[in-house]
Amino acid sequence: MFKEYLRYLLGRGQVRIILAIRSVLLILVLAAVPSMQAGGAVALLFVLLVLAFLGTYVANGYVIRSKMDPKRPVELPQYLVFFFLLVLFTLALFLLLNFLITPFIGPETKAVFEKYAEDPTKPMPAELTRLYLITPFLMGLVFYLIIPVLFAKLNIVQGLKALPSCIKRSDYVVAAWTPYVIMFVPTLIMFLISGSEEAVTSFFGQIVILFVLFFSLTSDIFLQYPTYYLIRTKEEPEEPTE
Predict the structure, then answer these.
(1) Less Cβ crowding at N or C end of the chain, within 10 Å?
(2) How far apart are CA 46 and CA 32, in angstroms?
């Protein structure tokens, strides 16, 4: 199914154009970071570049999703309204998950965090390392399970109603979590070696950085794959017989 998805993307020439623009914008954003202290026009230019960079994700999301279901093409106004509501829902879900996770952080870990915050230059304690690895990973699993269903329905309420039946499908869970785990591995490795400058600047470290950048530039493509999988594998209702 993933090969079929890639063929679908290759047939959407706009995707390649948007990815090229996104890559150029990322280079410009990184180049503008050292000049941020100048303020004024440079700071305004940096903000505009960041907004344009983020806008490529909105545009690419629409291009990928618009023709995914040939029987139900998506119009731009419909997608923009859905995307705005999706952003609000995602923020609410993030706050909810953070609220649910906080009670599991014991007082010892909180004390370690406060001590580390006083001098962040010191090596990160093992407790915080585990916390910073496990928490985002678990949140990502939840997001990658829910968001594709919402994209498939293009409606928050209908997506939430369809969610229970979708997560009962082991094939969908595999389709949703496999891309996420693949993308998370380079980030995990980068996090683990970030404390060693030699490891980061080594050939291996540079390869890991390239993978992190690649997945950052193509994360929306991987996120839309479970949506494509849901739409192309849904069971069509049987026609009533007369």
Answers:
(1) C
(2) 6
> In angstroms, rounded to a whole number, what is the distance separating the alpha carbons of residues 212 and 63?
24
**φ/ψ of residue 66, rounded to 5:** -60, -40
The residue ranges of DSSP E strands in the chain, in sequence order, are none
Give the pLDDT means over successive 10-residue stretches in the chain (242 positions).
Answer: 87 90 90 70 82 92 89 89 93 88 71 68 67 82 92 92 92 92 88 79 89 90 91 59 38
* Distance in angstroms (rounded) separating the CA atoms of residues 6 and 38: 43
Q: Whose structure tokens read 């706009």?
A: 14
CA distance linking residue 18 with residue 47, whole number of Å: 19
**Could you tell me the two tokens for 91?**
């923020």
Do the Cβ atoms of 97 and 147 come closer than 8 Å?
Answer: no
15: number of Cβ within 10 Å: 19
Give me 130's structure tokens.
Answer: 């585990």
